[in-house]
Structures are given as structure tokens and as C-alpha cells.
Amino acid sequence: MSMVLFASVVRVRDGLPLSASTDYEQDRGLQEAKKHLKGLSKKLSLFPDRCTLKSGRYHVNFTSSLGVGYLMICTDSYPSVLAFCFLDELQREFIVTYDTKRTDGAVRPYSFIEFDTFIQKTKQRYNSPRSLSTKINLTDMQTEIKLRPPYQLTVEDVGMANGYSLHTPSKYKGIAPNQMLEPVTLPGIVSCVLSLLCTGLNLLRGVHAIESIIQNEDEDFNYVIAFFLGMAACLYQCYLFVYCTVWRTGKSFLCLALICLCNMYLYELRNLWQILFHVTVGAFATLQIHLRRPQGKAPDYTV
Question: Where are the transmembrane segments (predicted)?
Fold first, then answer.
């Protein structure tokens, strides 16, 4: 039977449980899933903000926002869209009920145990499809999950040990796969066009440098390398602007540094204005990459 079995709210920075539903299930598989949930709750900051962990016949789903994590266990046949709608409803109610200062200042486990009442009522609603279908609109969540599906974790991925501790691989510290970037702005489009222009100029000058070497063996082949390295750096900046990758800003600064070094080396072949143009375009592209951040959660959904 498809249903929500357990839910809890925790503080992301240290995994302190703030509230949780009560259940009386003694199923061994469910108890194992709850161990995984407790272990994950202590390491939420290392994972993307929306994940699913498969544990036998159960799924552990969680989402996090504003320093608070919302976790739930459901049967493996329970629709993913409903599961994350459930978590989203818990999140919106918790944010309305408790401010950030109270959450950050909590020192004892289950300081907001009264929130359990809302969790229980919501769980009952989501376990009754007939009454639920007239009260929520799944369209927004379906669209978001299609565009940015939950990161799929496995027990092996998170390295469960002794039921409660995690040895989390560093690969989860990056940005979640398929994460969408903020909408493109006009300055961003301009930076890409200018970077492509610089790419073309470097390619053209590099080809001419190769021709010069063929005609005159005294020419320095390092000039060719400098032109093509500058071209690659400009092209990669366009890639970083378009796609969401790990350490985007850091990579863009490395590209800018490479562009500066190449133009310094090409000082004899380019005048000051040409060098200034290439460096300025590289700096502008780096700024636009930094400003175009990964999208946060979509606006509240209609319920």
C-alpha cells in the first residue's frame, strides 16, 4: 500500500531534531530506513537540497531550505511528486509558524514538538488520495521535478556505518546534477557574444602565427600556444556561463588568469588597446558567471 509512514524536521547545521511524527510500525525494513534517515539528518549540509534514498521497500525523501531540513519515509510505490509536495507543505507551514531566530537558538531536541500535530494531520491527508486530490495542485511540483529531479542516493553512496554515522564522499559537496541556473540577462548575452568574438580573434591570429612559422622558421611557436590557450579560455567561459558545474566561479577566475597571462606574453604582437579589450571581456564574462547563480526553490506551490 502506498503511504507516508514517518516525517521529521531537523536543523541542517547539526542535525538537531526539531519535531517528528509518531508511529508504531515495527517492520524491520522501516526501522532500517529510519536509521538511514537519522544518519542523513546529521549530514544534510553535504547534500543537494532535494534527494531520495532507496532503502529496500521504502524511500527516504528530504528537502532543505533556510537552514531547516524536512525528511520523510514512504513506501517505494508512493509517487515522488506527492512525496515532495508533502515535504513542501511541511516547509511552508514551519516557516510561517517559527522564525529563523527561534530555530537557530534551539538547544534541546524536539523543541517544536507541537508541530507534530500538523505533521500528523498532513500525513493523514496525503495518505487519503480522495480527499487530497481536491486540495492540492500538482502541476508546479511536477514541472519542477521534471526540470530538477531529486538527486538519487543509495545506501552505498552515503556509506552507512553502525546504522547512524555517515562517511559522505566529497563529491556531494558540489552542485546537484541538473540544477537550473537563473534566467539569462542581457549583460550575460553580451558577455557571451564578446567572449566568442575573442575566441574567433585568437583562432585567427593563431592560424596566422602557424603560417608565419611555416614560412619563417625563426618565429616563436610559443605565440601559437598562447593564442590557442587564450581561445580555449574564452570558449570555456561561455560554457561556464551556460551550464551549471561544480566550482563555476573558481574556474572562471582561472580562465581570466589564463587570458591575462596569454595577453601578457603576446605583448609584442598586440597593442595596448587590443590587450585591454581581451582582458576586459574576460573580466566581464567572469562577473556574469558569478552573478548567474543556481536557482533556489521555486516559489510556493498552490495547495
Answer: 223-242, 249-266, 272-291
CA separation for the pair 56, 32 (Å, rounded) = 9
8 Å CB contact between 110 and 19:
yes
The closest alpha carbon to 291, from 241, 246, 247, belongs to 241
Query: String of b and e for 2-21 (b: at least 16 CB within 10 Å)?
Result: eebbbbbbbbbeebbbbbbb
With beta carbons less than 8 A apart as the criterion, state whether 156 and 54 touch. Answer: no
Q: Which residue has the cell 547534500?
A: 47
What sign for the dihedral angle of Cα 194, 200, 202, 208?
negative
Cα of 161 vs its chain's centroid, Å: 26
Model pLDDT, residue 238? 92
Residues 219-240 have pLDDT tens digits of 678 888 989 999 999 999 999 9
Q: Which three cell numbers stand for residue 101?
A: 531566530
Question: At 185, phi and psi to the nearest 5?
Answer: -105, 165
Look up the pTM and report it: 0.53
